């Protein structure tokens, strides 16, 4: 199995107990052998290779965060879950996002928002990757303001709900077996969650094309026209955006771990290249300015590791708040942006060629920087927490 990462300069992985570290190393080895060889070709084509589902199924770690629904642990620690998110993204950010949308946003929505019957109905097949999930919140005219400006509506009609509206940027949306759709109840104005199953009349999903990031992810534009969903498919423990915010709080920390994975992957590529690439008769790793870029990158990575390890501890202790995940998302994604730029710079002209991998990390970083709350929105969340004053418009 692969040894500890060069980017883990302070040895944070050693904080995992032996059984969890074994799983992390298993994932690292598997992803390098089975997933990495697929991604450049898929990224260039802008297509999601369906064999990736089988690869992640073979890896066998879906659902381990949810007690009673995943093997081989009863429920993995928050630290292992975060490190696995880092590991998937260190291999490839956009294929990892397929997994994160399914295993994080979709599964956690059901785990947190569904009653026991709903959990038992959907989560086992999702943990086995026999049923693929998606999460539909962002709208064509609403991203950061979706909490107060959600336009998709839900109207009760006997034992069913009628959904109308549109969603955008929905990862896995073109092929998911079920989509968690968030809509505002016309009767009480509360946001509610609905599980819309594949093939439901009135539900259409169209692939968004011509992306320059996350090209493997099949993001979709979704339209809902009088979509009838049974009351049994309404997430029973969701009644307002406060409940939704709890889901986003947890998944936002996962995005910060993904950002760590992206800068780790880019840094490792740059470090290896600097040792091999020669100019003026010697490896460029011997040049002071190249070492400066590498050390600044390692500093960003190490600082982000420390923040995220403590974030996982706050989650384990049950004292995790919105501002904790928001600060991590804003800070780590900003540092990621710096690292991928410095790493690409070390490659010179080769840094824009997909064959060297770093261009993929450089491009995909922009998507991670933007979703799950922009830096500005997460800054305002933290700003309100530390000053007691809201600066939201």
From TrEMBL:
Pfam hit, one: Acyl-CoA_dh_N
Domain Acyl-CoA dehydrogenase/oxidase C-terminal: 239-386
Stretches assigned to the Acyl-CoA dehydrogenase/oxidase N-terminal domain: 18-128
Cofactor(s), by name: FAD
Keyword Iron found: no
Keywords: FAD, Flavoprotein, Oxidoreductase
Keyword NAD: no
Domain Acyl-CoA oxidase/dehydrogenase middle: start-end pairs: 134-227
Family, as annotated: Belongs to the acyl-CoA dehydrogenase family.
Record protein name field: Acyl-CoA dehydrogenase family protein
């Amino acid at each position: 199995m692969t040894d500890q990462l060069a980017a883990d300069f302070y040895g944070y992985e050693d904080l995992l107990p032996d059984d969890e570290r074994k799983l992390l190393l298993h994932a690292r080895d598997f992803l390098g052998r089975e997933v990495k060889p697929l991604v450049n070709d898929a990224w260039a084509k802008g297509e999601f290779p369906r064999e990736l589902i089988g690869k992640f199924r073979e890896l066998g770690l879906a659902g381990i965060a949810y007690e009673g629904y995943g093997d081989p642990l009863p429920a993995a620690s928050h630290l292992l879950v975060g490190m696995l998110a880092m590991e998937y993204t260190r291999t490839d950010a956009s294929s990892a996002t397929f997994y994160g949308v399914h295993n994080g946003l979709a599964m956690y929505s059901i785990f947190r928002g569904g009653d026991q019957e709903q959990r038992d109905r959907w989560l086992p097949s999702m943990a086995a990757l026999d049923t693929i999930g998606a999460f539909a919140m962002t709208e064509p005219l609403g991203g950061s303001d979706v909490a107060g400006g959600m336009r998709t509506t839900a109207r009760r009609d006997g034992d069913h709900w009628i959904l109308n509206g549109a969603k955008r940027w929905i990862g896995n949306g073109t092929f998911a077996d079920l989509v968690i759709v968030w809509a505002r109840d016309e009767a009480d104005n509360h946001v509610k969650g609905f599980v819309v199953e594949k093939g439901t009349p009135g539900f259409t999903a169209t692939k968004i094309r011509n992306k320059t990031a996350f090209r493997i992810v099949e993001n979709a534009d979704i339209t809902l026209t009088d979509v009838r969903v049974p009351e049994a498919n309404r997430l029973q423990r969701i009644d307002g955006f406060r409940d939704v915010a709890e889901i986003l709080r947890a998944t936002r920390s996962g995005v910060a771990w993904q950002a760590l994975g992206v800068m780790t992957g880019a840094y490792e590529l740059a470090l290896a290249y600097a040792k091999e690439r020669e100019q003026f008769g010697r490896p460029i790793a011997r040049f002071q300015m190249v070492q400066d870029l590498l050390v600044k990158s390692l500093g960003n990575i190490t600082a982000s590791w420390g923040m995220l390890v403590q974030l996982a501890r706050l989650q384990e202790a049950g004292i995790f708040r919105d501002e904790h995940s928001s600060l991590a998302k804003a800070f780590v994604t900003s540092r990621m942006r710096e690292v991928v730029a410095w790493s690409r710079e070390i490659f010179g002209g080769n840094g824009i060629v997909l064959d060297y991998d770093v261009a993929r990390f450089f491009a995909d970083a922009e998507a991670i920087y933007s979703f799950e709350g922009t830096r500005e929105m997460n800054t305002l969340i933290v700003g309100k927490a530390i000053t007691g004053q809201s600066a939201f418009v």
